[in-house]
Amino acid sequence: MAKKRRNVNMPRPNIMWLWSAITLVIVGYWIFNNEESAPVKSDWAAVEQMVANGDIEKIVVVNRDEARVVLKDGKVDSLRETDLRYKNIPKSGHQFFFNIGSVDSFKSDLEKAEEQTGNSVVLTFENEKPWYDSWLMGLLPWVVMIGIWFLIMRGMSRGGGAQGGIMNVGKARAQEFDKEDADKRVTFKDVAGLEEAKVEIMEIVDFLKNAPKYRELGAKIPKGALLVGPPGTGKTLLAKAVAGEANVPFLSISGSDFVEMFVGVGASRVRDLFDQAKKKAPCIVFIDEIDAIGRARGRNAGFSGNDERENTLNQLLTEMDGFQTNAGVIILAATNRADILDKALMRAGRFDRQIEVGLPELHERREIFDVHLRKLKLDKELDRDFLAKQTPGFSGADIANVCNEAALIAARHNKESVGKEDFLAAVDRIIGGLERKNKVISPQEKKTIAYHEAGHATVSWLLEHANPLVKVTIIPRGKALGAAWYLPEERQITTREQMMQEMASLLAGRIAEEKFFGHLSTGALNDLERVTKMCYAMVAYYGMSDEVGSLSFYDSTGQSDMAFTKPYSERTAQQIDDEVRTLIAKARAMAEQVIDEHRDGLVELAELLLEREVVFTEDVERIFGKREKSA
Fold first, then answer.
1. What is the rounded CA–CA span in Å between residue 165 and residue 400?
2. Which DSSP helix (H) or strand (E) runs through 226?
3. Strands 250-254, 175-177: parallel, antiparallel or unpaired by DSSP?
4. Inter-CA distances, 497 with 459, 463, 544, Å
5. Angle ∠(316,322,327) on CA atoms, nearest 5
6. Exposure string (b/e) for 609-619, b if CB count within 10 Å is 16 or more?
């Protein structure tokens, strides 16, 4: 006989309901349980007969409308024994009660009965509040105390958001997407681009679907996969698609959800998360931004006495590769800072695979545009290939933002559809910021900005390996007083010549200011910063200096133990500084030569900028001719 499987997903009984039931039983017993019997309702005829028999000691008129009869000692027992109707009358207090129409008539009837029988009865009058008043007054303090206790316990168990509070502080606050939630299900069809990542992760999906096929060959289920890539590239969406394709439950939690001010809470939440996952196996656990708890241990030794984060990481390592069996539970995690993660977390057996989720290529950007353009009312002549070419270096989230901004711009201008100009304006706004046409700029400042931007445009257009210009403007955007847009070539490696010409185009704005106005301004701050960083990278990282040699002081792991010392001597540091100045001087000479040779064209371009404020590729091509294409 097959053993009946216990339903592990049954909700646990709430102890609050048990305490509530006990309280109700106590209160009900107090109210309704009375050992003594209740008084019997009677009438004046029966009472008159009792007066004649001399059974009544006292009659109490309450609130001038009800008379209560108190029998003499010894009469109660004899009456209970002789008359079955009165066998349950109370032994103490009053035994009978009846309503009177008028106090005066009742007194008259009672006096007549006393005269006829010769028996006297004591008559008194009382005012009495309703019985429930005293009952409520006695019960009210208990109700208030029980209510306050109930609210406190409820707040402790549910306060601070879903599953938060003191009582549930050790519970994992994972968001669950069950396989029955068809409306929330995400599949690979909903994920545009990321073709290489999809291929690499499909094996995990196939294992969850066809686990016996792999187990027959002795293969073990992968413990986990780490999704690494820049922000906005779709790591979380890809993880949800894995769960959707495999049709298994999906538990999603952020790395910061494990971090708490209480000691031991992070480790407790890790244990609870894996307990939930085992009950739902096979399932997928997704930890977003795992670097919040997974950064290398011991990096802050001696600077912080709080090792709660390390305790949480230790518990995570134990759960992923401890003595417990997590069959059917696959861990997916995402981060854009894989270099700072602990080596023990990265090793095989915990995260068996590291999947790179990079920025989309040209054809992938077109697919992403196809996804986000479905809900927009578009111009029929809109070219998706053109949009993909105009957004190099954009992530999936950036492209979604471009589509939304374009729709907002079109609606702002009361258009019936979203067109090419709206998308270009959206790209400009995202890259450069909002136009600030009301910013006060003097004519001399405006002229300086025009020649500065014309210098950038001239050198970048005439140097073969510099990024080609798309448009240049002197309308302030964001913090910039002027801006130039380029369409960088999508390449995987960059040569020394390409970097030198790129630096020359960045320095061209400052050089144009010097040659035409004879002074320096602060407008070249961003250009100088980029040039300096690029040149130091050439010398110290890429080994592109003959003087320093083929050396690289770059730490790709991010776990260098030399955090407060340079990995080279002072002599080498001086060589790096001298070589950086030499390379920048060469780039500056290159830009000066181009500006001197095409001085008239630069002036024409600057005056055109002053006149129109925005100049496009066609205008630059008309002035300097067609641009040479790099090999």
1. 36
2. strand 224-228
3. antiparallel
4. 14, 10, 10
5. 95
6. beeeeebebeb
Q: How far apart are CA 457 and CA 291, in angstroms?
A: 41
- Positions of E strands within 313-463: 329-335, 353-356
624: pLDDT strictly greater than 90:
no
Residue 580 to residue 541: CA distance in whole angstroms: 12
Beta sheet of 469-473, edge-to-edge order: 483-486, 469-473, 614-616
- pTM metric for this prediction: 0.63
User: Each residue of 529-539: pLDDT tens digit?
Assistant: 999 999 999 99
Q: Which amino acid is at 372?
A: H
Question: What are the tens digits of pLDDT across the range 283-315?
Answer: 888 888 888 888 877 655 444 445 677 888 888
CB atoms closer than 10 angstroms to residue 322: 12
Q: Can you list the alpha helix ranges (DSSP code H) found in 210-290?
A: 211-216, 235-246, 265-279
For residue 362, which of 383, 406, 393, 401 has the smallest C-alpha distance?
A: 393
Q: Which tops the pLDDT comparison, 356 or 304? A: 356
Contact 520, 527 (CB under 8 A): no
Q: How far apart are CA 556 and CA 348, in angstroms?
A: 19
Buried b (16+ CB within 10 A) or exposed e, 538-548: bbbebbbbeeb
Q: What is the mean pLDDT of residues 576-584?
A: 93
Helix (H) or strand (E) holding 604: helix 599-612
Cβ neighbours of residue 98 closer than 8 Å, sequence gap 6 or more: 41, 42, 43, 44, 47, 66, 67, 69
* Whether 514 is catalytic: no
Catalytic residue, candidates 310, 364, 453, 513 = 453
Nearest of 259, 332, 251, 315 to residue 292 by alpha carbon: 259
> Would you give the DSSP letter of residue 250?
E
- Kindly give the residue spans of alpha helices, DSSP state H, lying in 159-264: 195-209, 211-216, 235-246
CA separation (Å) from 572 to 367, 558, 560, 566, 577? 48, 22, 19, 10, 9
What digits encode the pLDDT tens for the residues 12-45? 455 566 666 777 776 666 555 554 567 888 888 8
Contact 410, 417 (CB under 8 A): yes
Q: Tokens representing 43? A: 């009438």
- To the nearest 10 degrees (0 to 180), the angle between helices 235-246 and 195-209 is 30
R_g of the chain, CA atoms, integer Å:
44
Contacts of 530 (CB under 8 A, 6+ apart): 506
The strand pairing partners of 480, in sequence order, are: 477
Q: What is the distance between the alpha carbons of residues 197 and 361, in angstroms, rounded to a whole number? A: 13
Q: Apex CA 570: angle with CA 565 and CA 571, to 5°?
A: 145
Largest CA distance in the chain: 145
DSSP state of 464: T
Strand blocks (E) in 5-65: 40-41, 56-62
Q: Where are the alpha helices (DSSP H) in 481-569?
A: 496-517, 525-540
Task: Calculate mean pLDDT across residues 450-467.
Answer: 87
Residue 586 contacts residue 592 (beta carbons within 8 Å)? no
Beta bridge partner(s), residue 56 = 71
Q: How far is CA 258 from CA 268, 283, 530, 532, in A?
A: 9, 20, 38, 40
Structure tokens at 601: 């064209």
